[in-house]
Design goal:
The protein has 313 residues and is mainly alpha-helical. The protein has a single domain (8-307), classed as Tetracycline Repressor, domain 2 (Orthogonal Bundle). Helices cover 73% and strands 0% of the residues. Helix 5 runs antiparallel to helix 6 and helix 9 runs antiparallel to helix 11. The chain starts with a helix and ends in a 6-residue tail after the last helix.
Length: 313
Amino acid sequence: MLAYLQLFRLSNLPTAMADVLMGFLVVQQTIDTSLLVPLLLLLLASSLLYVAGMVLNDVFDYQQDCQQRPDRPLPSGRISLSRARLIGLGMLVAGVGVGMASGLMAEAEPWRGGLTALLLATAILLYDGLLKQTPLAPLLMGSCRCLNVLLGMSFVTAGATVDGSLLGLAPHQLWIAVGMGAFVTGITLYARSEAGRSSRPYLAGGVAWMIAGVLLLAYLVPRSLPDNFTPHLQAQQAGILLSVLSFTFIYRCLLGIAEPSATRVQAAVKQCLLSIIVLDAAITAIFCPWGYAILVLALLAPTLLLGKWLYST
């Protein structure tokens, strides 16, 4: 069981769920009982796709891991390569199917959730199988996170009235997805060589991307809200909150740049991964009462608990 939990990177899974829950709350502002089951299906779809990405990452990295990380589940033989491949592909297909089913149950446009899940599955395969070692890899990983947020927003027309700019999504909703995508692009760039001694230019570039993502969320999102929408946090308050919350990961990242050892860089990466949930909660606080923001923030608990036993990087 421990081998499977390690293979699934289960300690990071709540970060994907936080994105979906935040995206859902941004467009709905509440959790209506009629959408509770469809929301749970969206969370399940995201979880299946996330875990599939983790499993297929190790499947494609099998030969490299045999040389560099022989203690991991696949190289050590605790889980066979063929079984891992079957699990990964099966979860990928199931995630797309559950994404479509969530739209059907919500009586929304089922194509929205299904198409977003399909695009996410495609991006996962491209990252794991073809482009991981190329300069496009960080952008592609950021695109996966952007699509995951959009998956949470796929009920945008089921009970939420917005003036859509693209496929029914308002500008502020699109900027939220783009901002989170930019933030994760930065994490991926920062973590490119986390197992050894990292390159300072890569680390600095990663920090720049993360700061750009936070600036989008802190200053562009609150100022692109519809005129007829009254936020729970005003633009200035939202900007200050998100900026203050970013200090913890920026500090850790700067320590990694000063001394780019594996220990410091991996500690910074873990802090950045935790910051995804914190940022999701802060964004939720702009659109919903604080109780919903605390609900998103509560996903930190399983992340921290599981992180004591399972590696997250």
